[in-house]
Structure formats: structure tokens, C-alpha cells
Design brief:
By secondary structure, the protein is an alpha+beta fold. Helix content is 38%, strand content 16%.
Length: 1521
């Protein structure tokens, strides 16, 4: 009651003072450049990510869904789409779908198809159309006709993400592309015809989304941040021109508490007082004046105090409070100073921080996020990539959940280190068939070398090969002595040996193994015997020398012959008997077969072959010219691996190095490419079918692939050889036709392996060549009956007997199965089972082979823990050794580790073995990400916020480490809130606070725009979309708005009457609205010249569509060969620019693109909000090897549409002769500087007769400037162009807007302008020009790339402010001057030629890491680089500014700059009017022009606004989806 009285009194007092005014605030929104895409199409793309099969099933389900659009409200139509999608998705995936739709994550994919369609282009007035090899039709009737002649026309290009109908996809049939909107009638009629024909295999049917008449409605995006940074008001830089308010209003967030009043509650209990309560709240907010600066001692504990406040509220409000504190920190700071902090909390935070710093290198204040142990770097990841991570994880989590794994076990299995598939397998080289020529450990030649492995750690010069007496490096050559290629390889081996390279060299000679062949009839055998003779009589090194001298007798192009060998033997060893050495009775023939046998068993490819430490070199590495450098390079690379092993204590003085090498995980005894290939397919065992019946084949045929697999796994019986714990870690399924010899051989090999190896079990699947019947399944039914009725040992022995060829011959002759039964078998039960077995279940098995394993009847395959190998070719053998290798690879992948974890669950052996198989298949099939970290906290009662997941559901394990008062917290808190709404999470948030703060931790307000689901309004229409809202802002500070978007987004402000660079709420009524547009998605890349390995500086690329090949272009930087091109969703062609680029260079290969790597056409498809980064390798054409792109005569003409191609004011393209044009570059941000900029432009034009072209940096211009500049160009007769460049991700980012703008002034001069621009003059916006700038352009820079004016030194009273006169600058500059960056002229040709831009960026990268360096970035950087990039000092009169120059020199000034005065801090506007008399004239002249433009626009709008009818309104509501 007391509260109510106090409240009434306060409200009365207020009513006396205040008139209720509209709430103030700021809102910012970001829309896509393209129109809103239908949710139905986005949903189909989401489902398509799960596989082509599902995509088409969904398309069939929603065939004519759009008819419901008319009768339903928008909300119920949306719900209908989600419900339809729910038939193909789990509950978790449905939530992810809703999140994806809220994010519009798949909109670019739909828009890309739309753009590809518009490039076709679509026939007139056609709701859907087909394109058949370039010809179009709107009617299904024409399909037949167009197909007839299609073969004669070239096939269309298909993209990776295209949706191809799963018919019989043959390569030789015509391709029909349907452009249509799924869910419409027109689509259905086309789809019916095309799907039938694709099913028959007469055509290939591809679907691309195409909306015939897209409604031009804006689509608001989310997934970005908006910051309102508090600006320094030391120098007043705000325009005093009044702005018309937009009259927008804002909803406010009233839930929080102000000075003890909880307004949310009060409004509920006193709805009649709502307006007065709003006013009271504002009054309280303003009276507290939270913005007064804090004392240093008040700041110290802010971070811990924020954490204490967050930990003190109920769990479910804690994240919201963290969001509120971090995002509105400047106005919350004072209230935090009053929070008390418990000692236990401080202590616990310190203990946890110590542990985190030791275990994962996280320090106080750092922000880190882990989802299921995966580290999510928020600098790189955005909500779009996090959605992808959530989807990828969902597959594994749901799999584990379906397999019955819950709670702690889930995390343990997830964190198992699954060995990534290694493509560098090594062969075990400890084999007697290898003839080692030398042995570094024991040969006397190497005795002087040190023998300790510690020597590896001794420092040496780079490139020195350490000589250590250990067989660290081993080269084995497999040779056929008669092959021509062997000659060079033997010579190379001798070269290594002679030069004492620490390389042990071994040979394996593969020669004819037939007994009757001797050295007189086969040169290979002769060579082998001769070699053995020399090795026996002398030694192995002598044998190597002899090989070389023998090969020296062979002329180029010939091969070794028997005569050559005999002649050599006679000449070198005249006493030896040729017959005894080479003849039939030779004593030197032992081990002849060993080499060939070893080679055959090893499974290696064609000869000659080399193994380095067991790893085979690829055929293209075997070129003898390249091999020498390659081996030396391998030695260097392997040295670092050994160094690590010695350092970690894995390799010690007592180790045998070769044994150490051969015990690594990647070493195998046989190389079978089928087993070792990195492209692997797995079965999915995670389904839970309702019934598990395989006796009813019809029923079985209706199951989907996952259900079929689950039934097979449930019903399978095994031959086992269990480990001592009764479990089997490796489960193999053998599929084949056992009536065929090959099938029996395969199963026999598998059973032999089972016998030899505990922990392996084998199941058998029948895949008969014909339709299963009693006759063609006899053997299999006998196998199955024995598995069902006999003990394991008896069954195994019986089946092995059955599979032998003699048994099969007996059966064919009429022997009955029962006559083959063995001792110790239970005959009765066997016979009973065998005689009653139906063949239906075998039909089901054959279906499984066909639909899941993709085998034709009779084909064979082996499945190992779910990994499918096969189908095997007819002649392909899979031997016992192969099974041994497969077992090893399966175990070392993750089976062994999974088994150890499953063992702890205490299950029965059979179930445990099943689980190992299923979990292993699930984990190894999941894409390999980075290592999962196990992050846990020592104590968590005071400093860790925990939220438990919902029981019995799939959950994500999320760990966040964050200091509540950091930029990371501003971003992470809303992200965690949305995450917990989208998926079921087990959340732990650790308050990673910094102690003893000495400055304000955050100086800005922030919003992260993100929603977990599509929002609807009360009338069931879609809400306009996600917007960043800042309400309750303090009115006193000056704010600047900054958009923080994903890396590859280029956004610009398109609508706002207000000055977004200087927002001062005291002077605004209502709400400041800012509308931004995602203007471009960037295509970024790196380009290198293959012959030099260097980036080709000055190389130009163009990007366009097939109908408009030149839409954007760019220049390659020398830093990392980086280039960026502006694009939007769609398929783009990247080409070398016509002119010198195309004349000198050609594109050789490219990756990350959407066309084959060696295709001449480089096609890149942008179909998502993710960054797209490609690599391009180019090479000079043979006849242009000595030409230079940037040579003097380069590109004097050529059309260059600039990096932005926004040309205004009747711009004429240079055709033919170069025009005499003054190119002026300037940057401005905020209305005041734009006002100055206009005045600067007029002053330039007044003083020159030369045509002028202005270049402005588009990134920061206000919408109003961009709207009016064309009118100015028309009136004053100049050309202009807006250029833009996105700050590259690899270049150190600036966070303050002003510093970013300074960076743009200097860092990108070489890539901002076309190559055709020779000279550019930069003029600061706040400058007034009084002379002809043509004189400055033509000024002789004497070979320097740019000229700057030095700082004036004539105004004596400012001496104390001249920082360059003392300290660092005085010593760095020496006798040189410090130059001012308000005006400079750049010779772009020279600038590019000496790579000045790359040097400046390099120096910037080095210096900018230190926040205290480069305080005036644009000025300090060139002055700092003065020794590397020379500056020509311009005469002093080119720049006069009152702060530094005396009054007498003003008369001769050619330009006047309004420098800030650190002494008087005079505002710019007053200074301008006082110092430059003509400034006011110019200002009034421009104001008059702008007023005139405004009046014209107002009249135009009045004419064109008829009142909209009700019908229109209804239509727009319908089309929101």
C-alpha cells in the first residue's frame, strides 16, 4: 500500500512539470539487396542438405501447397510448411529449420537459382519453363520436340548444389532443367512428366528454383551486430543543419528496474497509469545521470561486480541480465559500483582461471565458446556457420541418443579422438626381400658421425642436413632392372651414397620367378644373379657401383640386354665363370622370388616405385630430375617430426629408430587402395524401426535405407572369436553369392582371419545372382542353419569345410548337405532348421544389397563396422592379408577406443559388440572437425552459471567462458539465449573476470540482431523482421553508429535523414531510424603465378554473368596475392581482364570454385551467407615470359569500370585518347564533413579549367549525400565515382570508426583506382582550395611515389604542441620533415611499380598490433616509412592551416585546411567562417541548390502518391511468404 501512495505523489509531481513526449531511441535494420524469398523454397533447401532423396520426397509432398496461401493467414501457412517438413525431420531438426528460416540462411541459395534463371533468360510471361540444351519452352507439350534434337546442342553446365532427380542417371541422355516454384500448379504439371521420364532413364531432370513474379518486398536479415560508440567531444564536429524527423516511434523494453521501481510489474497492476509511468521512468533515468565519469578506484572491480550481480539472480534471468549489463554498460556502470562481492567468489574465479590458463591457454578477460567440446571462434564464426555446426552435431547426437547412449557417456564418446583418415600410409620396410646397400648405424664409413638422437635438437643453419649415426631416413626402390626408368634411379641412389647423405638405401628387384628361366634367356634374372655374385665376392657398396657402371654401357633409349650383362661380366671379372653365375645351375639365385612376392603382397602400383620411410611416392613424384630435391625436402620435413619425438621423449638413445618408425599408426603390411582410400562410405545404424521383420519381403521393401540397415543389424548372426571379455571390436559383414567360387573364397578368407584374431566377428549376407530360390541358396541356407543351431566353434569349422571346393563338387554330384555334417554337431536341430528355412529372408537380404549397398545381384562387398568396401570387380581378390589390414585400419580408426568406453557401460557381450559397431560407424562417418576439448572447472558454486538440459532428449553441451563486461559478452549473451531457445542445452557459463580495471571496460552500447524463430504480429502477419533497438539511451553523449557484419558482407546505409555519425538524442524528437542494405557478398581469393610462386602484382580480374561478362573488377595485391570482387547470390564467371592481363597471363588451375580445377572457365557460385574464398593459379604465356604487367606502356587505354562502377554526372569513358582529367580523392563521414566536402569540391572547381573527376569512398557516405551528389555534378559539370573496398580479413582490424577511415586514406591506394588513373590528389574534406590543382598534379615528384606538404613551423606559440620535434619522431626522421596528410599527390604508376601499397600494409600490420602506435594512422604511417617509401616535400604554400602557420603566410596559401587547434579547441564551423571569408558564400550557394533539389522531390512525390486500395494491402499480406 505504501508504495502505491509514494507512486501517486510522484506521478502528481511529474504531471505538474512534464508534458508527455514520444520515447527517444535508435533503431537499425539491414535488408537484403534481393526481394524476399518464399519460406517453402528455403525449407526445401534446408531439407536438401540431408540428401537428394529427402529433397525430392519433400517436393512430392508439397506439390500444390501454394493453393493454401490464399485461404490461410500467413502464420498458419508458415505452420503448414513446417508441419510438412516435420515428416522428414526430427523434432530437433524442426527447431533448427525454424532458426534457419528466421535467419533467412537459405535465402541466398534460392536467390542464386533465381539469378541463374534470369541469366537464361526466362521466356516472356511464363510461370515456369524448361531449358533443354539451351532451348526454352513454357509448356509440357514441347518437351518431346525439344528433346529430339537436343543431342546436337552442347550440354548445359551443372552446379555442385543442383537438385538432380534420382532416376536412372545415365551420362548419354539429354539434360532437362526445370525452372519453377515448387508447390505451384505449373510446377506439378512439369514435374509429373519429367519425373516419369527420368525414372525411365530417357532424360536427366534438374530442378532450379524460379519465382516468376517475385514481389518486391524487403527482406530483413539478422546475424549481425550494431554498435553505438560514444564519441569524444573534445572538438565539436556536429553539423547544425536541422533534419526533418522521420516521426517513427519505438516500443520500449519495460521489464527492468530503475531506482527500486520495477516498471514491468507496476504497469501490469496499474494499466490506467501507463503513460504517467513511462514519464516517471524517464524522469528517474535522467535524474540519476548515470553517465558521469567514474573515479579510477570505482572502476577497479566492475567486472567482478557485474558477475556477482549476474550470479545473484534466478538462473533463467541470468543470461538476460548479462546481456543487459554488457550491451548497455555505459548507463549501467554507476549502479554496478554499489554491488558487494563475496570473497569466496573472487577466490573461486582465480582458481578456475589458473587451471584454464594451464589447460587450454585461456586468460582472464578472454571469451571462448565450446559446443560439444568444439571451439567456436566468434571472430570467425557467425550465426550462419554456427547453424551449420549445430546441424552437423545433430546427426551425431541424435545417432548416439537413438543408440541409447545418454548423459555422461555421450560426451565421452563424442570426445574420442577419431583418427582422421590418413592418406599417407606407410609400408612396413622390415622385410628380408629388401637388399640394403648401406647401414648408417653399422657401416664403418659413417663411424665418425655422432650417434646420439639428442643431436637432432642441436641448432644448425637452415637447410643443413644433420649427419647422425641412425637409420632415420630410409629409401627403398622397387625396380625391374630391364625398365628404362630404372637406370636414372640407380644413378641417383649412387649419387646419394657417394655424397654421404644420411640415407639408407635398399633395393627390391622384381624379376621373372619361373624356375626354368636363367640369366642367358632373361636380362632381369641375369642382372639379379650378377649382382648377388658381386655382393658375395666383394660387398654391397661395390654391387651398387657395378650397377651404375653396367647401366653406363646402355645407350639412351635402349634397355639392358643379356649380351650387355655377359660382356660386362667378361670385362670386369675375367676369372669368373659366366655359366656358374648366370646359367641354370647358378649358385647366385637365392631370394630371386622374394622380391616379386614381396612386391605382389605389398599391393603397390606399377614399377618403378620408391618408398621414403615406407611412404610410397606418387607416380608424378618419380621423375628423376625432381626426385633428388624431393628426397632432400622429405629429409628436412621428417627431421622436424623426429625432433618433436626426441623432445617429447618418445624416441630415446635406446630406441631402434626403424622399429620406432614402423610402429606408427599409419604403417601397414600391405597397401590396398580400396581399404586405404580416403573416400569412405558408411552405413547408418541409428534408426529405430517399429518392427524388425525380414521374413515378409513386401514389408521389408517399404523400409527406407536406415530402417533396412537397422533390421539387418538386429537379425544378423555371427561367427565369433571373442576377446577375453567376450566382446568383438570389429564386425565384418560379407555380402556375396556363395554359389560362386569368388563368393566362397571371400568368405573363407574372412573366416581364416576370424580364427587368427580375437575380437573379430563375421556375419554373412546372401546376394544371389538370380532371384532367390531353393536351388540357388542351398549353401547359404546351410550356413544360416548352422549359425542358428550350432555352437560357434562347430559352426565355423563346418562352414569352412562347406566352402572348400571339394565339398562343392560333391554337392554338385548329388551329395546331400547332411552327409557333410561333422563330428560334434547337433545333427537333428541342424536338419530340422535347414529343411524348414524359407527363402523370403534371403529376398530381403538381396533387397538390402540392392538398395543400401548398391550392389547388383551376385556382386560382392565387405562391410567393416559399417564401412562399405565394394562392389568388387569380377577378378578382384580380397585376401586374408586384406582382412588383416582392414581389421587394423578399423581398430586404429576408433573401434578400439569405442570398445574401451562401451565396456564401462556393463552390457551383455552381444549387445556391447553391436553397440561398438554402430557407434564406430556413426563417429567415423561424421566429418572430421578439430579436436574436441574437455573444458571443466575445479569449482563451480559461485562463478559458473549452470542450466540443466531437459531430460530424455538430445542435448548440446555448451561451455562459455566470458568476462561479462567485454565485447565478447555483448555478442555471446544474446547468442546463448537464442541457442537455448533453439536446442536443448546443458549450459555452463564461467565468469572469467579481469581484476583491477584501470579504464572503462566498454565504451559503447551494442545490440546483436538474432531471433530463434520467425515472429508474427497479433493479426497473424509476419512481423517486419529483426531490428536492432536501442531504447532508454542517455541523451547527453554523442554517439556514432557502426554496423558489425560477417566478414564477407558489404553493407551501406540507404535511408536515414539523421547524421548516423553524430547522433545526439537531446536534439532529436522520436526515434533515429537507420536502414542499411546488404549491397554485396564478397568473392575473395588469392592468386599466385605458378612459375615464380609469387603473386602477380597488378593482374586484373573481372567478374560477370554470361550475358554481362564485365560487371565488377579488381587488382591483385602483392600481400598474399589477395583480391576481392563484389558479387551477390548467383553463378559468376571470373576472367582475366581484357588487355595486358589477358595478353600476358593465362589461368592454369583454381580451387574452391564450382567448376573443375583445370577448366578454363572459372565459375564461382555464391549461394550462402558464408565467406567464399577461392585460389587461382596463373602463368605467363610462353611468348610473354619477359613482359611485366606494370611496365611503362601498360594500359594507357582500356575501359575500367572502377572497383565500384557507380558513375555519375555524364561520365564519359576513356575511349581512344586519354582525356586531361584532374582526379581528386576524398573521404568523409557524418553530415558536417559532407557539408565541408561539398564546399571543398566547389572551391576546386572554381579555380581550374581542367575537367575534374571526384572519387569518394562509398563505405561511409550518408544516404542523403549519395542522393544529392548527382544533382551537384549536373549543376557544376564534374564527373564522380564512388569507390569501395572491404577491409581485408587478414589485415589487423581497427575498431574505432575514425581510425578505419584514416586507414582507407592510405592503405588501399593501389587497388582502389583503375590502372588507367595515373595520378590522384587526395584533398581533405575540410579544405578550401584557392589555386589550380592542375599545377599540383603536374608537379615533378622527382621519382618519389607521392608528395606531401611538411607541417608549418612558423606559428611560434604552438611550439609546445609540435610532437614531431622531440622523442621518437625527432630521432626517426633525422633531418627530414614530418608531413601532414591533409593534402597529397600520388603517382599511382610509380606507387604500384615499387609495391608501395604492399610495403605500407606490411608496416601497418607490424605496428598496429600495439594500440599505442600510429596514433594518427594516416599521417604517422607514411612518415614512419619515409626511409623505405620516399616522400617528396611539396612547397609550403600548398597547405596553410592557422594552427601551425603564421598569419603572414596566409596570403600566398594555395589551400587552407581547418586543422583542429589543440590549444583553443575551437569548433570547426565557427573556425571555417572566421578563417576563410569565401567559405560562407560557398556554403549558402550549396544550401540553395540542396533546397531546390528538395523542393523538386517534394513536388514529385505529391504527384505520384494515389491512395492505396484495401485490396493492395490484402495482397501484400498474402505474399509475405
Amino acid at each position: 500500500m505504501r508504495n502505491v501512495i509514494v507512486l501517486s505523489v510522484l506521478l502528481l509531481l511529474l504531471n505538474v512539470h512534464h508534458v508527455i513526449s514520444a520515447p527517444k531511441g535508435v533503431t537499425a535494420s539491414l535488408s537484403a539487396k534481393w526481394s524476399r524469398t518464399p519460406y517453402l523454397l528455403e525449407t526445401s533447401e534446408f531439407i536438401g542438405e540431408d540428401g537428394n532423396e529427402k529433397f525430392w520426397q519433400f517436393v512430392d509432398t508439397v506439390k500444390e501447397l501454394t493453393v493454401y496461401k490464399q485461404g490461410e493467414s500467413v502464420r498458419s501457412y508458415y505452420n503448414l510448411i513446417v508441419k510438412k517438413a516435420g515428416q522428414f525431420l526430427t523434432d530437433l531438426q524442426v527447431n533448427l529449420l525454424k532458426f534457419a528460416l528466421a535467419l533467412r540462411s537459405y535465402s541466398p541459395a534460392v536467390q542464386a537459382s533465381q539469378q541463374i534463371a534470369s541469366d537464361e533468360p526466362p521466356p516472356e510471361a511464363c510461370p515456369a519453363f524448361v531449358s533443354i540444351h539451351g532451348q526454352h519452352s513454357c509448356s509440357t507439350k514441347d518437351i518431346k520436340k525439344l528433346l529430339k534434337a537436343a543431342a546436337g546442342r552442347p550440354k548445359p553446365y551443372l552446379y555442385k548444389k543442383d537438385h538432380t532427380y534420382p532416376g536412372v542417371n545415365k551420362t548419354d541422355v539429354p539434360i532437362v532443367i526445370l525452372y519453377a516454384e515448387i508447390g505451384t500448379k505449373k510446377f506439378t504439371s512439369f514435374h509429373k512428366v519429367l519425373s516419369e521420364r527420368a525414372g525411365e532413364g530417357t532424360l536427366m531432370y534438374v530442378l532450379r528454383h524460379y519465382v516468376a513474379n517475385p514481389k518486391h518486398q524487403k527482406m530483413l536479415l539478422s546475424g549481425y551486430g550494431v554498435e553505438l560508440a560514444i564519441k569524444s567531444t573534445e572538438y565539436k564536429a556536429v553539423d547544425d543543419t536541422k533534419v526533418k524527423d522521420s516521426g517513427a516511434n519505438a516500443e520500449e523494453d519495460n521489464s527492468d528496474e530503475v531506482q527500486g521501481f520495477v516498471f514491468g510489474t507496476l504497469k501490469k497492476s496499474h494499466p490506467e497509469l501507463t503513460e504517467q509511468l513511462v514519464e516517471l521512468r524517464r524522469h528517474l533515468l535522467e535524474s540519476t545521470n548515470d553517465m558521469l565519469p567514474l573515479k579510477v578506484w570505482e572502476m577497479q572491480d566492475l567486472s567482478v561486480q557485474a558477475a556477482a550481480k549476474i550470479m545473484s539472480v534466478p538462473k533463467f534471468d541470468a543470461l538476460k541480465l548479462m546481456r543487459d549489463l554488457s550491451q548497455n554498460f555505459p548507463s549501467k556502470a554507476r549502479s554496478l559500483t554499489r554491488v558487494a562481492v563475496k570473497q569466496e567468489m573472487r577466490k573461486e574465479i582465480e582458481e578456475n582461471q589458473k587451471r584454464l590458463s594451464e589447460s587450454i591457454g585461456v586468460h582472464p578477460g578472454d571469451g571462448e565458446l565450446f559446443i560439444n567440446g568444439l571451439h567456436i571462434d566468434l571472430d570467425i564464426n557467425n550465426p550462419f556457420s554456427i547453424l551449420d555446426i549445430l546441424r552437423g552435431e545433430a546427426r551425431v547426437l541424435e545417432g548416439l541418443h537413438n543408440l541409447g547412449i545418454q548423459g555422461e557417456h555421450q560426451g565421452k564418446l563424442l570426445r574420442l579422438p577419431v583418427n582422421a583418415v590418413d592418406d599417407k600410409y606407410a609400408l612396413d620396410i622390415r622385410h628380408p626381400a629388401i637388399m640394403w646397400i648401406n647401414d648408417i648405424e653399422n657401416d664403418p664409413v659413417y663411424r665418425s658421425w655422432p650417434s646420439g638422437v639428442q643431436e637432432l635438437l642441436r641448432a644448425t643453419f637452415p637447410g643443413v642436413i644433420r649427419q647422425i649415426r641412425h637409420n632415420l631416413f630410409n629409401l627403398v626402390l622397387f625396380l625391374d632392372p630391364v625398365q628404362e626408368e630404372s637406370v636414372e634411379l640407380v644413378k641417383l641412389a649412387e649419387l646419394f651414397y657417394k655424397h654421404k647423405i644420411p640415407l639408407r638405401i635398399g633395393f627390391v628387384f622384381v624379376v621373372n620367378t619361373k624356375e626354368e628361366i636363367d640369366g642367358f634367356s632373361d636380362a632381369g634374372v641375369g642382372f639379379f644373379r650378377l649382382l648377388n655374385y658381386i655382393a658375395d665376392e666383394y660387398d654391397l657398396s661395390q654391387a651398387l657401383m657395378s650397377m651404375v657402371s653396367l647401366y653406363n654401357t646402355v645407350e639412351g633409349g635402349e634397355t639392358l640386354s643379356v649380351d650387355k650383362i655377359s660382356a660386362y661380366l667378361k670385362r670386369k671379372f675375367p676369372k669368373a665363370s659366366a655359366e656358374r653365375i648366370l646359367g641354370v645351375e647358378s649358385e647366385y639365385d637365392d631370394k630371386r622370388k622374394d622380391g616379386a612376392l614381396f612386391y605382389k603382397k605389398s599391393g603397390l602400383g606399377s614399377l618403378p616405385l620408391a618408398l621414403f620411410n615406407g611412404v610410397p611416392l606418387s607416380p608424378d613424384e618419380m621423375d628423376p630430375d625432381e626426385l633428388e630435391t624431393l628426397i632432400l625436402q622429405r629429409i628436412m620435413d621428417t627431421t622436424t617430426t623426429f625432433q618433436r619425438a626426441v623432445f617429447m621423449g618418445q624416441l630415446t638413445e635406446h630406441s631402434n629408430v626403424v622399429d620406432y618408425l614402423m610402429e606408427q599408426a599409419n604403417v601397414v603390411t600391405r597397401m590396398n587402395p580400396l581399404i586405404l582410400s580416403t573416400d569412405r562410405k558408411y552405413l547408418d545404424f541409428t534408426s529405430k524401426p517399429v518392427v524388425d521383420d525380414w521374413d515378409d519381403t513386401t514389408m521389408f521393401s517399404y523400409y527406407d535405407t536406415r530402417d533396412k540397415t537397422a533390421v539387418m543389424a538386429k537379425r544378423m548372426k555371427y561367427f565369433t572369436n571373442a576377446d577375453e571379455d567376450g566382446m568383438s571390436a570389429v564386425t565384418m559383414w560379407i555380402a556375396g553369392d556363395f554359389e560362386k567360387v569368388s563368393g566362397r573364397k571371400l568368405l573363407l578368407s574372412a573366416l581364416k582371419r576370424v580364427k587368427a584374431s580375437p575380437g573379430v566377428r563375421v556375419g554373412v549376407i546372401d546376394n544371389p545372382s538370380g532371384k532367390p530360390s531353393e536351388d540357388n541358396t542351398v549353401l547359404y541356407r546351410a550356413i544360416w542353419a548352422s549359425l542358428l543351431t550350432q555352437k560357434n566353434k562347430a559352426a565355423t569349422e563346418f562352414v569352412q569345410k562347406l566352402l572348400r571346393e571339394e565339398s562343392c563338387q560333391l554337392l554338385q554330384k548329388g551329395t546331400k548337405i547332411k552327409d557333410l555334417l561333422m563330428q560334434g554337431m547337433d545333427r537333428d536341430s541342424f536338419e530340422k532348421k535347414f529343411n524348414t528355412l524359407e527363402v523370403d529372408f534371403i529376398r530381403s537380404q538381396q533387397l538390402f544389397c540392392r538398395d543400401v549397398l548398391k550392389l547388383s545381384p551376385g556382386q560382392q562387398a565387405v562391410i567393416s563396422n559399417g564401412r562399405i568396401l565394394g562392389p568388387f570387380e569380377e577378378q578382384e581378390e580380397f585376401t586374408v592379408e586384406d582382412f588383416q589390414l582392414l581389421e587394423k585400419i578399423t581398430l586404429s580408426g576408433s573401434a578400439e577406443k569405442v570398445k574401451a568406453k562401451v565396456k564401462l557401460m556393463g552390457m551383455k557381450a552381444k549387445q556391447a559388440s553391436d553397440l561398438v559397431m554402430k557407434v564406430d560407424a556413426l563417429l567415423t562417418a561424421a566429418p572430421k572437425g578439430e579436436v574436441r576439448r574437455d573444458v571443466h572447472f575445479i569449482k563451480d558454486s559461485h562463478s559458473v552459471l549452470r542450466l540443466s538440459p531437459r531430460e530424455n532428449e538430445v542435448f548440446y553441451d555448451v561451455v562459455a567462458i566470458v568476462d561479462p563486461l567485454t565485447r565478447e559478452a555483448q555478442k555471446m549473451s544474446p547468442l546463448l539465449i537464442v541457442l537455448s531457445q533453439v536446442v536443448n542445452v546443458r549450459l555452463q557459463v564461467f565468469m572469467n573476470c579481469r581484476a583491477k580495471l584501470s579504464e572503462m571496460p566498454l565504451k559503447s552500447f551494442y545490440r546483436f540482431v538474432l531471433e530463434s524463430d520467425v515472429n508474427f504480429l497479433a493479426n497473424n502477419t509476419v512481423s517486419p523482421g529483426p531490428v536492432a533497438r536501442f531504447m532508454e539511451l542517455p541523451e547527453s553523449p554523442l554517439l556514432t553508429l557502426i554496423m558489425i557484419t560477417p566478414e564477407s558482407w558489404m553493407v551501406q546505409a540507404v535511408r536515414s535523414p539523421h547524421d548516423l555519425d553524430n547522433i545526439h538524442l537531446q536534439e532529436v524528437n522520436g526515434v533515429v531510424t537507420a536502414e542499411y542494405e546488404l549491397e554485396h557478398l564478397l568473392l575473395e581469393g588469392h592468386c599466385f603465378d605458378l612459375s615464380t610462386g609469387q603473386p602477380p602484382r597488378g593482374l586484373q580480374f573481372t567478374l560477370g554473368m554470361s550475358r554481362d561478362p564485365l560487371m565488377y573488377d579488381t587488382i591483385v595485391m602483392a600481400n598474399l596475392g589477395y583480391f576481392q570482387l563484389k558479387a551477390n547470390p548467383g553463378a559468376w564467371n571470373l576472367k582475366l581482364r581484357k588487355g595486358r592481363s589477358e595478353d600476358i597471363y593465362q589461368i592454369l588451375t583454381h580451387d574452391g570454385t564450382d567448376s573443375p580445377a583445370d577448366a578454363g572457365d572459372v565459375i564461382a557460385v555464391l549461394n550462402s551467407f558464408h565467406s567464399k574464398i577461392i585460389k587461382v593459379r596463373v602463368q605467363k604465356k610462353a611468348e610473354k615470359m619477359n613482359e611485366d604487367l606494370l611496365s611503362e606502356n601498360s594500359e594507357s587505354k582500356g575501359i575500367w569500370d572502377s572497383i565500384a562502377s557507380v558513375t555519375g554526372g555524364g561520365s564519359k569513358k576513356d575511349e581512344g585518347e586519354k582525356e586531361d582529367v584532374l582526379n581528386i580523392f576524398s573521404v568523409a563521414s557524418g553530415h558536417l564533413y559532407e557539408r565541408f566536402l561539398r564546399i571543398m569540391m566547389v572551391s576546386v572547381l572554381r579555380h581550374t579549367k581542367t575537367p575534374v573527376k571526384f572519387w569518394f569512398l562509398k563505405n561511409y557516405l550518408s544516404p542523403s549525400f549519395k542522393e544529392t551528389i548527382a544533382h551537384m555534378a549536373e549543376k557544376y559539370g564534374f564527373q564522380f565515382e564512388l569507390v569501395q573496398y572491404k577491409w581485408p580479413r587478414w589485415l589487423h582490424q581497427q575498431t574505432e570508426k575514425q581510425r578505419v577511415i584514416w586507414g582507407y586514406k592510405i592503405l588501399f591506394l593501389d587497388v582502389l583506382f583503375p590502372l588507367a588513373v595515373d595520378k590522384i590528389i587526395f584533398v581533405d574534406a575540410d579544405q578550401i582550395v584557392r589555386a589550380d590543382l592542375k599545377d599540383l598534379r603536374d608537379f615533378d615528384l622527382e621519382g618519389a611515389p607521392y608528395g606531401y606538404t611538411p607541417f608549418c613551423e612558423s606559428r611560434r606559440e604552438m611550439e609546445g604542441y609540435r610532437f614531431w620535434k622531440s622523442g621518437y619522431w625527432a630521432s626517426h626522421l633525422g633531418h627530414r620533415k614530418y608531413h601532414i596528410s591533409a593534402l597529397y599527390v600520388v603517382d599511382l604508376k610509380k606507387f604500384r611499380k615499387i609495391a608501395a601499397g604492399d610495403r605500407l600494409r606490411g608496416q601497418y600490420q607490424a605496428l598496429s598490433q600495439d594500440p599505442n602506435s600510429l596514433s594518427n594512422l594516416d599521417q604517422d604511417l607514411p612518415n614512419n616509412m619515409i626511409h623505405q617509401v620516399a616522400i617528396k616535400s611539396l612547397p609550403q604554400e600548398w597547405l596553410w592551416c592557422e594552427t601551425w602557420c603564421d598569419d603572414t603566410s596566409k596570403v600566398s596559401a594555395k589551400t587552407i585546411d581547418l586543422c583542429n587547434n589543440p590549444k583553443t579547441k575551437e569548433p570547426k564551423l565557427t573556425a571555417a567562417a572566421r578563417i576563410v571569408p569565401e567559405w560562407v558564400e560557398y556554403d549558402n550557394e550549396i544550401k540553395q541548390l540542396l533546397r531546390h533539389v528538395q523542393d523538386q522531390e517534394d513536388t514529385a512525390t505529391q504527384k505520384h502518391t494515389p491512395s492505396p486500395s484495401q485490396q493492395d494491402k490484402v495482397d501484400t499480406r498474402r505474399d509475405e511468404l
